[in-house]
Amino acid sequence: MMTMGGLAAKAEEGVEVLHWWTSGGEAAALDVLKKDLESKGISWTDMPVAGGGGTEAMTVLRARVTAGNAPTAVQMLGFDILDWAKEGALGNLDEVAAAEGWDKVIPTALQQFSKYDGHWIAAPVNVHSTNWVWINKAALDAAGGKEPANWDELVALLDKFKEQGLTPVAHGGQAWQDATIFDAVVLSFGNDFYKKAFIDLDAETLGGAQMKEAFDRMAKLRSYVDDNFSGRDWNLASAMVIEGKAGLQFMGDWAKGEFIKAGKKPGADFVCMRFPGTQGSVTFNSDQFAMFKVADDKVPAQLKMASAIESPVFQSAFNVVKGSAPARTDVPDTDFDDCGKKAIKDLAEANTNGSLYGSMAHGHANPASVKNAIYDVVTRHFNGELTSEEAVTELAAAVEAAK
Ligand code: BGC
């Protein structure tokens, strides 16, 4: 910016940010961050890469870094952050983290992915979780109004949606979306089962009888999606529930961002609940901004961005719009709606009770190699290419080969 009288301009501070927040609700949340930085004199260069779950964004990132042109900050999930850190590609946020006491307020479950070798490398923005169901309230009322408490009640509800002439399950056939449902289905068989399968990668659990049952349930759910599900983006599936064309969607709480953006209110227009059988447990994923190594003159803006993200006021404002819980434990839930309050409470309780697990589908249980191996089997089974018997055998083998 030139100053009056033509004096030499001070170089403008700016950040270039790569992310996959391109749906209506996501863009509204991103705008909170952009405006916050702009109010601090930091300009924003946007690098959006559409594709829920970030698969495409990670491909574009690889190309950028290979070309020696890393963005300042990149939206990233769990193990991907650690993989980049291992490659030595990330910067260092220790100075701002120490000055602001991040160690004390950011849950350790998140710090596991924000730190590498004892150094802060990423700034967590939020905590999402995947074991949610988003139900159209009018459709639920017409079906008797009772939230399904277990698998049988869920199936009965889906049958009633069908009788109402609705698409029972709004879903988009993309590998990450299939895997998001699988997170919840596996968790509904209990914490131990989820842990043994996805955290411990125990071959017997992955290839066992209960896993076959989990795949059978996936096949049952598949029977409730519409004919046009293939390739549909997740937010278009949310729109089907919002518009009353579908009964419900199984999706992480970023879906709430779509309902809110459409002016819908929890309790009145839609109902949020944990996937039947998973109450008390949480499969989480946290969006973090991994900070890349950039030229020295770009570091101050990078540190300011990290600091802005961790401000409690920003954490509240952003996550209210995004549908997630704050990434700090000291942010009041005052401004959050009932689903947001529940997300914050569930998270704290699950953390205390030892029933908080990283989401397999969203990169918080395993590195990308294992995650992609699981995606592949889950998707082929969901699309009818594998029986449940074949799926368990393939799952155990694919994970073993990938780990
Ligand atoms: C991210 C969310 C995002 C969702 C859909 C998840 O992996 O954590 O922030 O809204 O993908 O794109």
From TrEMBL:
It is found in: Periplasm. Its main location: periplasm. Keywords: Periplasm, Signal, Sugar transport, Transport. Signal peptide: none annotated. The keyword Transport applies. InterPro entries: Bact_solute-bd_prot1, SBP. The keyword Signal applies. Belongs to the bacterial solute-binding protein 1 family. Part of a binding-protein-dependent transport system for a sugar. PANTHER family: ARABINOSE-BINDING PROTEIN-RELATED, BINDING PROTEIN COMPONENT OF ABC SUGAR TRANSPORTER-RELATED. This is Probable sugar-binding periplasmic protein. It comes from Shinella pollutisoli. The lineage of its organism: Bacteria, Pseudomonadati, Pseudomonadota, Alphaproteobacteria, Hyphomicrobiales.
